[in-house]
Structures are given as structure tokens and as C-alpha cells.
Design a protein that fits this description.
globular; 21% strand; 374 residues; alpha+beta; 6-stranded mixed beta sheet
């Protein structure tokens, strides 16, 4: 029964991971003191709009610009009915201006530009965000509010009460805390990063001796092994995250996402056919460099505040580490408790890693060939 339960948990987790990456939209509002007009840009994934409006009219599993353009009025009507903007307690009138297509790291997005005309814009803006509330409860809106060059970031959740924002210069501590939250959120919804980390943790409660596995003698041994792996992963992805966020190095998103899928696949295969066993931290460090570029793409989508760049980078990185630590604290006690069980090696280590490898293969093919499978 225990073996079946563990395999079921792994299978359910992996099945969820086969779905597309959790849904995010990117909403940017730009306002200027004394100007009653707020300019908006709303990037919404085509796959999400297809879910709501059935855009793929010819059923070829690809949404063309023509299919989007012919439905422009419906797109704006659907989206703007699910966003309410008010300034100082008075509702603003929303008017569509243009429709474009742009690419993000996880696929093509419709870009809806609009204007919000407000009777007054002095101290306070409130947003009632309801996009996809009836279809995808995990959806989030990533807000970037720019008022006279001062940028505030926030995560908007459908179904919550309207969120309010003051138009005063945001505090540096507030910026730091918000990016910590963004980092935690990204790890918790980043299935590829999560599965890579789990692949590294599964063998941490075992020792490889003479081509066979044996349980570690103590929890301390397991924790020391995990400490080395997590520290190496943290250090390496922090390096590339910073370089990419500062635009020192820039790589194509398809290359980065494909490499991340490959890293998950190789880490899982290493558990099935062990090649790197004594210095797993080297594996974590090498592939962590790739994952850092993936973190940077999300950070750039959030919009880094130039006046608090170091704080935003530090906050996001700390948030990622908190998210990683929560995974470690959830996984390590469970697998340490199960390490002596006869089914752990064939069922959890090999069986679980096989499922992860299968998921990673699907991701890799989808990302390399643009099939939208991960």
C-alpha cells in the first residue's frame, strides 16, 4: 500500500507537470501626475485566450495572426470586461487602442493596448482583476505600475477583492518584499525547476557503493549531501540570473527552456543509470547555470525597477531560495523515513525518476520543435 501511495503521488505530480506552464498574464499601467489618462498594455497567452474563446478556428493546433486579428473585438471585450480600474474611488473608462502579438519564454501572447480615462488621478489606484477566473483558478496577473518613473510590482489573483496602490514613490523595502514574494511564487509554479530539484534530492538519502545503493547512516549525512547540492545550485543560478537580468548575457528563450528540460532529463537518468554519484554538487552547479537564465526571463517579464535594481535582484533571489528550501523541507524527511524500505530504490528512486524523465522528454521535444507541450 505504501509503495502504491508513493508512486501515485509521483504520478499525479508529474501528470500535473505535463500540462502547460501555469497561466500568467503581464499587465503594465503607465501614469503621469496630472494626466487623467493611464496607458495600459496587457500581454495574455494565446493558449489562455484560445481556452476562453476557441481561437483555433481551423483546428490545426496553431493560432495564426489571422485567427487572432479577425477576433479582435471579441478579445478586447472578453479581457476588458474582466478588468476594472478606478482612481481615487472613481471608475475609469477603458478604451482599446491596438492589438499585437509578442513572444514570451513560454509561447506567443496577444498584446492588448488600451487607455483608462479617469476623472481624477491623485493618490490612489485600485484594480479589480478577474481574467480567467471561471476557467483557471491558478491564473495570476503580474502587474507593473509605473507612475512618474516609480515602479510598483504586484501579483493579481482572480477572485480576490480589488487591490489598491498608492501613487507615492514606493518604499525600497516594499519593492524588496514584493520581489521576494515573486521569487517564491515562481519556484512553486515552476514545475521544471521543481522536478530538477526533486531529481537531485531522491538519491540524497542513499550511498553508492560497489554499484549498489545503501541507506545513509544518519539524517545528518543526508542533510550534508543536500546542503552541498542546494548551495551549488543556488550559487550557479544566482550568477547567470544576475548576468542575464543586467543584460550582460542574453540567450534565446527557446534554447534556455530546451536546455532546462534537458537538465531535468539528465538528472533523472543519472538516478536510473548512475554516472555522477559522489559529487552531485557538480551536476547541480553545472545545470544551475542554465536554470538561472530561466529565472531571469521571468524577472525581466516582471519589469525590474531601475531605481532599486539591486534590491529587486536580491529579493527575487532570496524568494527563489525560500521556495527551494520549502521543497527540501517537504521532501527530505519523507524520503529519509522511507530510505530503508525495500521498495524505495526500485519504486521511488528508479520509478519516480523514470516518470520525471518521461515528463522531461515531452518538455524537451515540445520546446525544441515548438509543439507547446511544456
Amino acid at each position: 500500500m505504501m509503495r502504491a501511495a508513493i508512486l501515485l503521488i509521483l504520478l499525479l505530480f508529474a501528470t500535473n507537470s505535463l500540462a502547460h506552464k501555469p497561466s500568467d498574464s503581464y499587465l503594465t499601467l503607465t501614469a503621469r501626475s496630472g494626466d487623467p489618462v493611464v496607458n495600459g498594455r496587457w500581454d495574455i497567452a494565446l493558449r489562455d485566450l484560445d481556452l476562453a474563446l476557441d481561437l483555433d478556428s481551423n483546428r490545426d493546433n496553431a493560432i495564426s495572426w489571422g485567427e487572432v486579428r479577425t477576433r479582435e473585438s471579441e478579445l478586447f471585450a472578453y479581457a476588458l470586461q474582466r478588468l476594472a480600474v478606478s482612481a481615487d474611488g472613481v471608475a475609469c473608462a477603458l478604451r482599446p487602442t491596438d492589438l499585437l502579438i509578442d513572444g514570451h519564454s513560454d509561447g506567443a501572447y496577444a498584446v492588448l493596448t488600451f487607455q483608462a480615462t479617469c476623472a481624477a488621478l491623485r493618490q490612489h489606484v485600485a484594480l479589480d482583476y478577474r481574467l480567467l477566473s471561471e476557467l483557471d483558478p491558478s491564473h495570476r496577473g503580474l502587474l507593473r505600475l509605473d507612475v512618474d518613473g516609480a515602479v510598483t510590482s504586484a501579483v493579481l489573483t482572480p477572485g480576490q477583492p480589488p487591490q489598491g496602490f498608492t501613487l507615492a514613490q514606493p518604499s525600497r523595502m516594499g519593492t524588496f518584499v514584493q520581489f521576494v514574494r515573486d521569487g517564491i511564487h515562481h519556484i512553486w509554479i515552476g514545475y521544471d525547476h521543481m522536478l530538477f530539484l526533486v531529481s537531485l534530492l531522491l538519491p540524497a538519502v542513499l550511498l553508492r557503493r560497489e554499484r549498489s545503493w545503501s541507506p545513509v547512516p544518519s539524517l545528518r549525512s543526508a542533510l550534508l549531501s543536500v546542503l552541498g547540492v542546494v548551495t551549488a545550485f543556488t550559487l550557479s543560478h544566482s550568477i547567470t540570473l544576475t548576468l542575464a537580468a543586467l543584460e550582460v548575457i542574453s540567450l534565446p528563450s527557446r534554447l534556455v527552456e530546451s536546455a532546462i528540460a534537458l537538465s531535468v532529463l539528465l538528472a533523472a537518468l543519472n538516478n536510473i543509470w548512475p554516472l555522477v554519484t559522489r559529487r552531485a554538487w557538480l551536476l547541480a552547479f553545472g545545470f544551475g547555470l542554465v536554470h538561472g537564465f530561466g529565472f531571469a526571463s521571468v524577472l525581466n517579464d516582471l519589469g525590474l525597477p531601475r531605481d532599486a535594481l539591486a534590491l529587486a535582484l536580491a529579493g527575487f533571489n532570496i524568494g527563489v531560495e525560500i521556495g527551494q528550501l520549502s521543497v527540501v523541507l517537504a521532501v527530505i524527511p519523507l524520503i529519509y523515513w522511507l530510505r530503508d524500505a525495500r521498495f524505495y530504490r526500485p519504486g521511488v528512486l528508479v520509478g519516480g525518476s523514470s516518470v520525471i524523465a518521461l515528463v522531461a522528454c515531452v518538455w524537451l521535444v515540445g520546446r525544441v520543435f515548438g509543439f507547446g507541450l511544456g
